[in-house]
Amino acid sequence: MANIFELPDDLLAALIESFPCRDAQIRALATLLYPRAAPCRNLIIHGTEATGKSAVTARLLEALSSASSSSSSGNDAPPLFNHAVVKSVECVTARHLYERAVALVGDALRWEGRTATTTIGRCETVAALTVELTKMLKYDQPQERDSRFVLVFDGIDRQREAPPTLLPALARLSEIIPNLTTIFILTAPSPSLLRVSSVPQLYFPPYTKSEYITILSRPPYLPPPLPNTTPQETTDLWARFAAAVHDALAKPASRSLPGLARSCAALWPRFTAPVAAGTHRAREFTKLLVAARAYFQDEAVLEPGITLAKGPISISTATKTGEKEARSSSKDLAALLPPTARLLLIAAYLASHNAPRHDQTIFSTWHSGRRRRGGGGIAHHITKKAKHRKIARKLLGPSAFVLERMVAIYAATRQEWLNDENDGPENQPTVDGDVGMAIATLASLRLLIRVGGAGGAGDTMDRGGKWRVGVGWEVVRGVGRSMGVEVEEWLVE
Q: Whose CA is closest to 343, among 424, 420, 266?
């Protein structure tokens, strides 16, 4: 018994070679579209951005159409397979989408009813679209009944001014036109998207790390050989380099294949500069990674518009520059903020990283009658008791605190931190306008982040509002040292 499935294996092999790591999706898509396999009426292709949905679909349809046209050449039979791709990003309104679809289908079929002097009429509804497509895709001859036309709506979930019944209505086109297959390419389909049962869905998952490296190790991403290096050594170094870039920048800068490729292209000349200079060999990957670690931490390399470099920079100079910038960020912040804002920022950090049950022990003068300058203080003794903690609290993420607690810490420590011996009872700190202005300043600079209320909005001086500190340990330590305060002595580990 002959096999009813007749997929063009040679064509698919060439397509799989062009799109590595997508062979399963290519074969499934060809099976659901090719007329001599198992063609379906509607098909949903979904996946996140830059996973090859549109590119694979377009190339496969072009290849199947070309193979069908070449097989039917020399006789009067129409092509067995044809297609049209409608991109929603190019359509301003739903009417524009309908008219664009009619025009593309007419161009693909070279429809005789449309001459050079005629234009597409008004097509404002799906009903009008159905009428126009039925005229062009109505096959009456016996040899035409095995033909297939694929209409693709790319990015249809982002169509502007789309009516709520757009997708269910488009899914009914294949019920009226038997030889039509409608493909919907989108990001994340809902369970009742088309309101039609038994609609096959083809998922394009995000690339994994190994798939990223496999794709980047092939043309056109593979770089030319380095000087005094064999092509194989360059390929091996490029593969290890791409893996390091993925691990360092996958979340912030390389969420997709184009993003990772751009990051690798920007970092590769700087990473291989010691190899070109002859100071390192291509096999010394660890030494190259240590020498170029500053580039993996500098956003200006990936976004040249942030900082314009003047001339070439050596590896040692760039490393020292990155370390100086990391140390100078806290110094610049300490110089810009007034004393009240700096004290409140330190109090906010302590409120985010110390448990509330330790506040009375650390900050109350009733429990501690002496100053804590120069000697670990009560926080140091509490640290000795809490030996079960394996991770330092300052390395953990900040937790939310109530504004009243931060102001209480500020009021309890202000006199000691400022070392003001002449500060009498009449000058004790209160929640006055200076404190309110400082809190507003820290909030506007995102150094204090409001986490309570509707969307983070509300009264800044609401005593019950919840906040968290927006800076890390290095910044707070620099701000504290600018005022002679060792913040680490006030942390309970």
A: 420
